[in-house]
Amino acid sequence: MKIKIKAFAAVKEACGFEDKELTVSEGISVEKILLELKKCHPGLKEFDGTLLFAINEEYCDQDSVLSDEDTLAILPPVSGG
Amino acid sequence: MIGSGMKKIILQNEPIDMAQMLHEVESDSDGAVVSFVGKVRKNSRGKNVLHLEYEAYREMARKELAKAADEAEEKWGISNCLVAHRFGRIEVGEASIIIAVSSPHRHEAFLAAQYLIDTVKKKVPIWKKEYYSDGSSWINDKE
């Protein structure tokens, strides 16, 4: 299945992409996708333990599972206001 | 959004018109309008700040702010509320955010405004980057 990944702010700069499409196996978790991403984007490792995730614009956990056509956003800790 | 009050979420690049924002939440049945304005400081963590840049996950930020506004209405029965946040480059002294809340009495409006800004700081996907004379950095620690 195909999913979209979005990266923001410091994560976007560390990874060097803003939007990305990935082909992944059915039922893959956020955590597994992150492990895969770290192989090509080692810059992600510096955010270990601080990242937030959202599937289709709703916060989710590392063990949340993605479906076909989902968008996973990888978010550094927020600092708005 | 739920409830009967007006709730407005604005994400914009342009400077915020404060008077207009306050006017938006007013009504003849409300005796209180409480506002919070967040501004760009010229110093941060011992460095001179030249300007800031804000980035937002706009679709999601809108949803999270709408949820927070619904929660504020549910918890405190406020009448109207508005949150306007800027993105892009913002200069020292300019406002990055304004929150305005109206309700019949002041107590609920104060609590709701505090709740909304606290939620922005904790949950809404917006990030700031500080620019100094010798570089820049994304701010991602808790104040």
Can you describe what's shown?
The complex is a heterodimer of chains A (81) and B (143). Chain A is an alpha+beta fold and 81 residues long. Chain A has a single domain (2-75), classed as Beta-grasp domain (Ubiquitin-like (UB roll), Roll), CATH 3.10.20.30. Chain A has helices at 9-15, 30-40; strands at residues 2-7, 19-23, 52-55, 58-60, 71-75. Chain A starts with a strand and ends in a 6-residue tail after the last strand. The relative contact order of chain A is 0.31. The mean pLDDT of chain A is 96. The two termini of chain B are 30 Å apart. Chain B is an alpha+beta fold and 143 residues long. In chain B, helix 2 (58-76) runs antiparallel to helix 3 (106-123). A four-stranded mixed beta sheet of chain B has the order 1-6-8-2, with helices on both faces. In chain B, strands 7-5-9-10 form a four-stranded antiparallel beta sheet. Chain B has one domain (7-131): Aldehyde Oxidoreductase, domain 3 (Alpha-Beta Complex), CATH 3.90.1170. The interface between A and B is medium-sized, with 19 and 28 residues.
Q: So, CATH architecture of chain B?
A: Alpha-Beta Complex
Order of helices and strands of chain A: EHEHEEE
- Secondary structure: helix percent of chain A: 10-25%
- What fraction of the residues of chain A are assigned to beta strands by DSSP? 25-35%
Main sheet strand line-up of chain A: 2-1-5-3-4
Termini separation of chain A: 37 Å
Question: Strand portion of chain B, in percent?
Answer: 35-45%
Q: How many independent structural domains of chain B?
A: 1
How many strands of chain B?
10
Helix fraction of chain B, binned, reads 25-40%
Helix/sheet category of chain A: alpha+beta
Number of helices of chain A: 2
What secondary-structure arrangement, pairings included, does this model have?
The complex is a heterodimer of chains A (81) and B (143).
Chain A: E1 2-7, H1 9-15, E2 19-23, H2 30-40, E3 52-55, E4 58-60, E5 71-75
Parallel strand pairs in A: 1-5
Antiparallel strand pairs in A: 1-2, 3-4, 3-5
Chain B: E1 7-12, H1 18-25, E2 32-39, E3 43-44, E4 47-48, E5 51-56, H2 58-76, E6 80-86, E7 88-91, E8 95-103, H3 106-123, E9 126-132, E10 135-139
Helix pairs in contact in B: 2-3
